[in-house]
Design a protein that fits this description.
By secondary structure, this protein is α+β, with helices and mostly antiparallel strands. The chain has helices at 22-32, 41-49, 94-106, 122-126, and strands spanning 11-14, 52-58, 64-72, 77-85, 113-115. The protein is built from 4 helices and 5 strands.
């Protein structure tokens, strides 16, 4: 378990993969996350297995209320993705605390850059130190459709 400044009382963050409620994460992402709508369960399970996962849980019940996934080599680069906070706990600071937990978990690894993409949560990530790319013209993407 990781203690995280700003995490509301009554919640805890863990990177223990055994605690991830894969069915809940898949349901959240495949039905309510604009970037993952319709994602197949087997793809989500593969993504979870190959990533560093963060879950936020109600301390008493153990119920998962948020999720984030990091794709990383653990040394130089990381991609923060699939961040989802259950609507019932949005607005409580859970998303910001989750982004801070990711930052603090990666900092001692020597990771130089953590990227993410968001359409509508810039303010959440800014509170954890993320900023728009200074040189977006230096980045490219290969998209398979």
């Amino acid at each position: 378990m990781t203690e995280t400044p700003g995490l509301p009382e009554g919640y805890e963050i863990s990177t223990d993969p055994a605690r991830i409620d894969a069915g809940r994460v898949h349901r959240w992402l495949s039905t309510d996350a604009y970037w993952a709508l319709g994602r197949a369960r087997h793809r989500q399970d593969r993504a979870i297995e190959a990533s560093l996962n963060f879950g936020v849980y109600e301390a008493v019940s153990g119920e998962q209320v948020a999720y984030a996934r990091v794709v990383t080599d653990g040394a130089t680069f990381a991609w923060l993705c699939d961040v989802y906070v259950d609507p019932s706990v949005r607005g409580k600071g859970v998303g910001t605390a989750l982004a801070v937990a990711v930052r603090e978990r990666l900092r001692p690894c020597g990771v130089r850059r953590v990227l993410l993409a968001t359409r509508d949560a810039h303010g959440v990530y800014a509170k954890a130190g993320f900023a728009a790319l200074e040189r977006p013209d230096q980045f490219m993407a290969l998209v398979f459709e």
